[in-house]
């Protein structure tokens, strides 16, 4: 056989299992392909490009912007929301600054400064409260409050510089500015371009003020301004890098989270569609039980049975009288289309009257009331349903000008409801009450509703009745002495039903009016033998609404942020995850940006050394400490870059870098080493700096004495910044390093270099007195507070703010990790749910049919149908099972009998797993009858056969399957000491396979081939396989032996010559088993 082959080898026979590897067809499903396309589309959208912003002036490796403008806008909103939580840290720093400065002003009794700082302190307090507790709108919090905080800080530092520092020197207030500039980059939730502008404004204002207003140490003004600018530049560069790296990390997290959420939402939507399709066929309680048992191991002796007993249920059977005559005038497609429209309308009636449709058996409609929810008016609902069906068929009779009518039978009793077997599940009911209801229909009268005595007793006189005399028309009713009634037709109820049915039928009429173009397209598809879909007007392809998707994504992101700390399970104090495994995973997670912190440390060391060259002693020790330190940090930095540039590094360095990044202890030791090295390059120089009591007024870089010792402390603030940008370690490691290194600087200022600071202050005091004598200022305006305290306070305040910022950073990193973990976990869970639902759906209908319904939103009148020109059909029944079935107490009211039948059918289903039966497709079970087909391949028109032997190989497989069913039943008989007998009917030819209705889809096959196969079973003899002459001739080529039975009268076909298949020649000349 050449051409395209189905990947299932013909009929699709997925077996329910928790092992996903046993479902190769799932890997090729459209849903997975759609997800792959969505991932590729998302990657294209998320590619970063150079925008028309300030990014274009940055190096290529620092430029990040999404190509999609909408995605960039969404990200900017998201990123800004993420950074807004850092704003209270900066506002708190400003408030701390206010308290200390205000205390100093009160100590000096500076009334004007006190008034100004009091106002700014209160304002800062209000701003802090608004930011911390989010007491303003999101727009205000994101677009107003950041600028308000910046303005307050800028104003406070300017006021402090004017009122506090006298006499002013070029190095005054530099520590505040260094920290303020860095804090603006990492704590203000605004765009980078605006931060750069604001920071440059700060630098210019401060430089102009100290340059113009300084009155001491002005002889070294140029060197000090240069040192200041280098420290500002260092702070800006490091801040800019941290901003961009945070932006990059956030973008990566945004893309990953957005993609995960989109896939999750897509899977949820698909899962919902699958569940809706599933629940349209199975009641919810049955479907829930099945999904719960998916993938679990059954430890019991028997297969799990999903059957429950329900008392006081009314069962309705409705058969179309004259259907055979009407169908003889129609093609198979026209017939199925007519049934589809009629039964879709019946489904609407069933919904109106609280009925649960069970099955469609040819032209018979079968429903019940009282399952799964009990109703006291179940009998009345069934009767009204029957009356409306009679009215509905009358409208069809008038429309088609045929003699069709509806015969309705109803009985009330107990039923066993559920599903049977392991494949092609259909909800069904079993009991003697169901059998009687069937006979109530066959013993009824066309155009009337025929009810039993039990049903009549539940009507409570709601309907008028007349004697039914069912015993005169049905022996089963007669043998059991059952009294029956016919419902009298009420004119009012007929008018109401006619009005309702007119609406339904008018809808149906409107859907059948297609344009000539649609009809021609349909005929063209039909002529080619392809799948035909009769669509209702307005049926649309299921396309996801991008607006709705974006709204859901935004809501998910906002909800995720709102419940962040609650859902993440982080401890309030330590921020550790309560889940130990999650905490270990977080520590093991590879940090891709580990070189960034090392690079910032290199930058800070270089700028610190340049500052030292400008205003600090140039000693041999300073050159040695810088040389050793920069070599060590550069070595670590170079090594850490190996994982980012693998092609340019040897494998040894790549392995070392990978180990450094992935091992938490190694990362901690390396960060500690770098921090200590950077700090040591300053602290060692401080230690060797000569502590002299002689006042020095002129700068001499060759002199070991330090005039501007405070620049060491300013460098110390940058060292603390270097520790902060080490994103590889936790907040506790950073806090410990900040406390230790900050304390080292503080101790040197307060204890070891007390005399040097004193001499500096005395010199400034002398200059202040000199200025006072010259009449420039009042004498008592001089600041008496020792400068060592002010400098140390700047260092400690910056350290405290950075500790709180590190906590915020740790929280953000942990939340990003948790959200990514949670999104991945939820995606996996939803994916598993989708696969479970898909497995259940595939046990109801073939995969290509299920895809048709899952990918499109269609109306109830829509019909899916496909021609199969060469198909084998088999009906295999156990005729003596009805004798075995008993509803006595020992059989648990029939439950144990059905449990045994479930074992039989499950064993039959298990045979379908065999490779030799891959071409067999189970259609359904009808009580104890097993229906299957062969040769139902996808796109049969594309298959080319090399000969008749190959063409009908699947029919031989179907016969072998029938033999296997019989052997399996014999084995069961031996094990259970029963004597069940199988009766089989087989036929071959064209069929029409499809689904009737979209609200409650029913997959089945129709056509003369199916009808004859059913008659071959019903007219056959127990223990035999009966076929017609045409089928016998095909199978004889495969070595099967037959015995002629003779002519058998078949309803609607007259007399047909039939044969019993009695066996197979031992050495038949046949092809190897082939699957089409």
Task: Walk me through the structure.
The protein has 1076 residues and is of the alpha+beta class. It folds into 3 domains: 46-262 and 585-827, no CATH class; 305-514, Alpha-Beta Plaits (2-Layer Sandwich), CATH 3.30.70; 848-1064, Alpha-Beta Plaits (2-Layer Sandwich). The strands form 4 sheets. Strands 10, 13, 14, 15, 17, 18, 19, 20 and 21 form a 9-stranded mixed β-sheet that branches. A hairpin with a 2-residue loop joins strand 14 and strand 15 (929-934). It is elongated and about 135 Å long. Residues 1-31, 45-55, 503-544, 692-702 and 1069-1076 have low confidence and may be disordered. Its EC number is 4.6.1.1.
- Percent range of helical residues: 55-70%
Total count of strands: 21
The profile of the biggest β sheet is: 9 strands, mixed
**Percent in strands:** 5-15%
Helix-strand makeup class: alpha+beta
The DSSP helix count reads 37
Rg over CA atoms, rounded to whole Å, is 43 Å
Mean pLDDT: 79
Distance between the termini: 8 Å
Low-confidence runs of at least 5 consecutive residues = 1-31, 45-55, 503-544, 692-702, 1069-1076
Catalytic activity: ATP = 3',5'-cyclic AMP + diphosphate
GO molecular function, one term: adenylate cyclase activity
Main location: membrane
Cofactor: Mn(2+); Mg(2+)
Could you write a compact summary of the structure shown?
The protein is an alpha+beta fold and 1076 residues long. The protein contains 37 helices and 21 strands. 57% of the residues lie in helices and 13% in strands.
């Amino acid at each position: 056989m050449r051409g395209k082959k189905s990947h299932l080898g013909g009929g699709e026979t997925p077996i329910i299992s928790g092992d996903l590897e046993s479902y190769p067809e799932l890997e090729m499903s459209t849903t997975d392909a759609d997800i792959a396309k969505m991932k590729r589309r998302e990657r294209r959208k998320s590619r970063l490009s150079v925008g028309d912003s300030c990014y274009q002036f940055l190096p290529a490796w620092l430029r990040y912007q999404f190509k999609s403008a909408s995605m960039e806008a969404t990200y900017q909103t998201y990123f800004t929301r993420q950074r807004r939580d850092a704003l209270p840290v900066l506002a708190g720093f400003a408030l701390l600054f206010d308290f200390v400065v205000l205390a100093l002003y009160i100590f000096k009794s500076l009334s004007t400064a006190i008034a100004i700082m009091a106002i700014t302190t209160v304002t800062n307090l209000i701003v802090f409260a608004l930011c911390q507790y989010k007491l303003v709108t999101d727009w205000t919090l994101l677009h107003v409050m950041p600028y308000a905080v910046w303005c307050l800080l800028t104003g406070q530092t300017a006021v402090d510089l004017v009122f506090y520092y006298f006499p002013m020197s070029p190095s005054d207030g530099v520590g505040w500015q260094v920290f303020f500039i860095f804090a603006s980059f990492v704590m203000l939730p605004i765009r980078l371009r605006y931060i750069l502008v604001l920071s440059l404004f700060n630098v210019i204002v401060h430089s102009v003020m100290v340059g113009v207003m300084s009155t001491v140490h002005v002889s070294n003004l140029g060197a000090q301004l240069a040192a200041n600018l280098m420290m500002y530049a260092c702070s800006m560069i490091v801040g800019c890098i941290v901003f961009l790296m945070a932006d990059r990390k956030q973008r990566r997290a945004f893309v990953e989270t957005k993609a995960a959420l989109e896939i999750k939402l897509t899977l949820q939507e698909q899962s919902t569609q699958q569940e809706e399709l599933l629940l349209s066929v199975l009641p919810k309680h049955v479907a829930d039980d099945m999904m719960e048992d998916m993938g679990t191991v059954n430890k019991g002796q028997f297969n799990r049975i999903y059957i429950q007993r329900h008392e006081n249920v009314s069962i309705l059977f409705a058969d179309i009288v004259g259907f055979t005559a009407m169908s003889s005038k129609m093609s198979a497609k026209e017939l199925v289309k007519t049934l589809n429209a009629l039964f879709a309308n019946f489904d609407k009636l069933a919904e109106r009257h609280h009925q649960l449709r069970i099955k469609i058996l040819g032209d018979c409609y079968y429903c019940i009331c009282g399952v799964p929810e009990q109703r006291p008016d179940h009998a009345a609902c069934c009767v009204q349903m029957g009356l409306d069906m009679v009215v509905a068929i009358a409208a069809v009779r008038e429309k088609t000008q045929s003699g069709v009518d509806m015969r309705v039978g109803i009985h009330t009793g107990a039923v066993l409801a559920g599903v049977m077997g392991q494949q092609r599940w259909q909800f069904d009911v079993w009991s003697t009450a169901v059998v009687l209801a069937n006979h109530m229909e066959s013993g009824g009268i066309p155009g009337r509703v025929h009810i039993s005595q039990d049903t009549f007793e539940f009507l409570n006189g709601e309907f008028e009745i007349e004697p039914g005399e069912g015993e005169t028309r049905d022996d089963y009713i007669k043998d059991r002495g059952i009294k029956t009634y016919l419902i009298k037709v009420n004119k009012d109820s007929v008018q109401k039903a006619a009005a309702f049915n007119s609406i339904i039928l008018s809808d149906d009429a409107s859907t059948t009016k297609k344009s000539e173009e649609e009809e021609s397209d349909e005929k063209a598809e039909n002529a080619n033998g392809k799948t035909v879909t009769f669509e209702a007007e307005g049926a649309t392809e299921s396309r996801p609404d991008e607006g709705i998707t974006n709204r859901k994504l935004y809501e998910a992101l906002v909800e995720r942020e709102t419940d962040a700390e609650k859902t993440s399970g982080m401890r309030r104090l330590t921020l550790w995850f309560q889940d130990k495994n999650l905490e270990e995973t977080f520590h093991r997670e590879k940090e891709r940006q580990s070189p960034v912190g090392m690079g910032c440390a290199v930058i800070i060391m270089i700028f610190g050394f340049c500052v030292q060259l400008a205003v600090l002693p140039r000693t041999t020790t300073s050159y040695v400490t810088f040389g050793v330190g920069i070599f060590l940090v550069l070595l670590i930095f170079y090594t850490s870059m190996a994982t980012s540039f693998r092609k340019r590094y040897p494998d040894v360095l790549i392995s070392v870098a990978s180990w450094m990044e992935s091992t938490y202890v190694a990362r901690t030791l390396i960060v500690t080493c770098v921090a200590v090295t950077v700090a040591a390059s300053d602290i060692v120089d401080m230690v060797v700096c000569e502590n002299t009591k002689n006042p020095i007024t002129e700068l001499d870089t060759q002199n070991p004495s330090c005039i501007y010792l405070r620049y060491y402390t300013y460098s110390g603030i940058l060292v603390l910044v270097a520790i902060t940008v080490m994103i590889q370690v936790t907040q506790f490691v950073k806090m410990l390093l900040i406390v230790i290194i900050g304390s080292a600087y503080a101790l040197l200022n307060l204890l070891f270099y007390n005399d040097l600071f004193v001499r500096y202050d005395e010199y400034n005091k002398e200059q202040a007195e000199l200025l006072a004598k010259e009449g420039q200022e009042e004498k008592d305006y001089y600041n008496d507070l020792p400068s060592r305290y002010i400098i140390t306070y700047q260092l400690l305040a910056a350290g405290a703010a950075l500790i709180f910022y590190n906590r915020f950073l740790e929280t953000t990193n942990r939340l990003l990790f948790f959200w990514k973990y949670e999104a991945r976990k939820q995606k996996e869970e939803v994916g598993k749910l989708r696969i479970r639902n898909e497995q259940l759906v595939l046990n109801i209908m073939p995969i290509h049919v299920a895809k048709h319904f899952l990918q499109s939103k269609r109306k109830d009148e829509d019909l899916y149908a496909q021609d199969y020109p060469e198909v084998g059909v088999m009906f295999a029944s156990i005729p003596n099972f009805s004798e075995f079935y008993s509803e006595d107490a020992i059989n648990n009211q029939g439950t144990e009998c059905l449990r045994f039948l479930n074992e039989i059918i499950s064993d039959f289903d298990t045979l379908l797993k065999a490779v030799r039966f891959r071409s067999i497709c189970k259609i359904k079970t009808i009580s104890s009858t097993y229906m299957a087909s062969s040769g139902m391949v996808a796109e049969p028109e594309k298959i080319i056969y090399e000969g008749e032997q190959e063409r009908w190989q699947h029919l031989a497989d179907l016969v072998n399957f029938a033999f296997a069913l019989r052997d399996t039943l014999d084995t069961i008989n031996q094990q259970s000491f029963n004597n069940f007998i199988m009766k089989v009917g087989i036929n071959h030819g064209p069929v029409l396979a499809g689904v009737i209705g979209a609200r409650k889809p029913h997959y089945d096959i129709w056509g003369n081939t199916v009808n004859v196969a059913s008659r071959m079973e019903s007219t056959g003899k127990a223990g035999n396989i009966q076929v017609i002459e045409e089928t016998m001739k095909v199978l004889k080529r495969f070595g099967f032996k037959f015995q002629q039975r003779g002519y058998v009268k078949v309803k609607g076909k007259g007399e047909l010559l039939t044969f019993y298949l009695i066996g197979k020649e031992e050495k038949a000349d046949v092809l190897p088993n082939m699957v089409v």
